[in-house]
Design brief:
With 89 residues, this protein is of the alpha+beta class. It has helices at 14-22, 52-62, 83-87; strands at residues 2-6, 29-34, 41-48, 66-67, 70-71, 73-76.
Length: 89
Amino acid sequence: MKLLIRNLDRATTEDELRTLFEGYGVVQSCTIVQDPATKSSKGFGFVEMPKIGDAKAATINLNSHTLGANKIRVKKADDKVENKDKTSE
C-alpha cells in the first residue's frame, strides 16, 4: 500500500522517514519529493509498504506524529487516474 506523508519538516531525510515507518513493518520504498530546481524538499513524500495491515497500522499510529518540527499527516495515496479523459467520453 502506498502512503502519502504530508507536512514534512523540510530538513527530514528519506532515511529518517524510512526508519520511522519501519517500526510498523517492511518499507518497500521511501521517497521525499524535491523541487527539481533547488533540490530542496517540497514537504511531502511517499512510503510504500507491501503488507496492507502494516501500512494501516502505520497510518493510524503516525498520523499527527511529530517528526522534526512538524506534525506529519499520513493517509493512503490515491492512485493517479485520468478521470478527465474518462468523463469526457
